[in-house]
Amino acid sequence: MNDLDADAVGELTGTWDEIWLYGDAREDEYDRAVLDCAARLAADPGGPSAYVWTLGLVMMAPYVSGLRAEELTAPVRDALAAADGALRDRPCDHASHPYRTTYGDSAEDLAEDLRLTADETAVWEPSAPREEWRCPRNVAGFARIASNIVEPGSAGDVPPRLPREDLRRIKELSALLEGYPEGGTDEEVAAAGRDLSLADDPLDTAGYVLLVRAVSWHAVSGMVRAGFVLDELIDGLEKALTGFAGAGCGHRTHPALSDSGPEAAELGVVLSSPAGREVFEHGWGNKGMAALLCPAFIAGHAEETLELLRTGRERLFGRRDTSALDAAYLRPDGRLEIGLIVERLQDTSPQQPHGLDLGLWAARRHAGATDPRERAVLLLTAGQTMRTAYPDPPVSVLRDVVPALRAAVAARPEGECAHPAHPVPDRGGFLDGLPHLYAPEEHPAPEGALDPDAWTCPWFLAGYARDRLTPLEGLLDEDG
């Protein structure tokens, strides 16, 4: 049992969890929590509360290890040794213990298991039976785990554990790749490329290649707004491939890699360090790790990912070639294929893939157009594609669209126009008026159609362009 009530344990674990998460620099408050926990364990290393204080030191061990301060290390080391000595040889008939299987958990998981173990009335159960969590031999095992974190190599009979930094990285990348980033997303992605560039162990390099593979899909999705991020990934892969040049392969098969971003990122992080590879072998099983890290196999994925990133970099930040679109959007006589253009402006799944290139094409043609109706159609087309774009339009598109919109805003005459009404862009039926505006002889006026002058009115076009520019402001300031 435990002579601490569940509320007290919950309060303690909150503090210990905070130290695990944020204990990168020394804090007096954190030091006091470490020393208090160690003192309580040392006072009764074989007592009913030993599992609470031991698991607390497991959570705070990375903080102690990172500081390398003897005034913290010595009492923690002594308390853990006392708990191990008092508990490891006690009778036990359990077939398994949590310390044998929680080698890859985060402190959050451990904190939750501790809270649930201490609270007999909890609705939820801990990840293993409470008796196993409280078992003296389990507590002794966790004491050795904490000792091994504080002084690596001091205990050889405990499962390997992922470093705190790797666990954090997995969590942050999982959130990012699932669409719920916690901040600093561009830097997190770029860091994968930098780490690959700096890796000097071939096995670490292989792991980082797999990590870059995982984040590359996000990097080329349009969610990344800075070109330097893709450059870091590309540079890392180019350097890695020089080390894989001429790599042979004697494997009959290679493992299939996950196409899930979070799963692929976790695998890359785990395999990019010796500690992680130990965890992989111990907990995930040695499922053909030699074939998984085969230089030829990794080189193939590096080449494939490099091509994806180079193509994506050009598409997002380079100069897109829209010359081939003339055949689709212009008739042989040079007039607009207005029916197809309006069809492509519909905000529907089949048309969305055409939007950005159509908007870019329209903005470029607008720059040289002289017919007022054609200029109005082209400006409205460029603006509508910006409204429906997801994610935000890339620099390669904004580079031409934003100047076209700004020029329309700047062309607004002084005073006010005399039109009683203008088209309402965000109202249903707005697009239905474009065919009649451009080619009234071919397309009858829709119900409620306004005069062409209301569509080509510079006051209307200036207001429309201003509204479309507002959400785009600042997007061209990124490093392209």
What does this 3D model show about the protein?
The structure is a single chain. The chain has 480 residues and is an all-alpha fold. The chain folds into 3 domains: 6-160, no CATH class; 165-317, no CATH class; 323-477, no CATH class. The chain is 62% helix and 0% strand. It is built from 23 helices and no strands. Helix 2 crosses helix 3, helix 9 packs parallel to helix 11 and helix 18 crosses helix 20 (395-410). The two termini are 61 Å apart. The relative contact order is 0.07.
Radius of gyration computed on alpha carbons: 31 Å
| Mean pLDDT figure | 92
Shape: elongated
Strand content: under 5%
Q: What does the largest sheet look like?
A: none
Can you tell me the number of structural domains?
A: 3
Q: Kindly, what is the distance between the CA atoms of the first and last residues, rounded to a whole number of angstroms? A: 61 Å
Question: Tally of extended strands?
Answer: 0
Coarse structural class:
mainly alpha
The helix count comes to 23
Report low-confidence residues grouped into runs of 5 or more.
Answer: none
What proportion of the residues is helical, as a percent range?
A: 55-70%
Oligomer: single chain
Note the run of SSEs as H and E.
HHHHHHHHHHHHHHHHHHHHHHH
Topology (SSEs and partners):
Layout: H1 6-22, H2 28-43, H3 50-67, H4 70-87, H5 107-118, H6 130-134, H7 136-150, H8 164-177, H9 185-198, H10 202-219, H11 227-243, H12 261-271, H13 274-284, H14 289-292, H15 295-317, H16 326-329, H17 338-344, H18 352-368, H19 372-388, H20 395-410, H21 433-438, H22 452-456, H23 458-469
Helix pairs in contact: 1-3, 1-5, 2-3, 2-4, 3-4, 3-5, 3-7, 4-7, 8-12, 9-10, 9-11, 10-11, 10-12, 10-15, 11-15, 18-19, 18-20, 19-23, 20-23
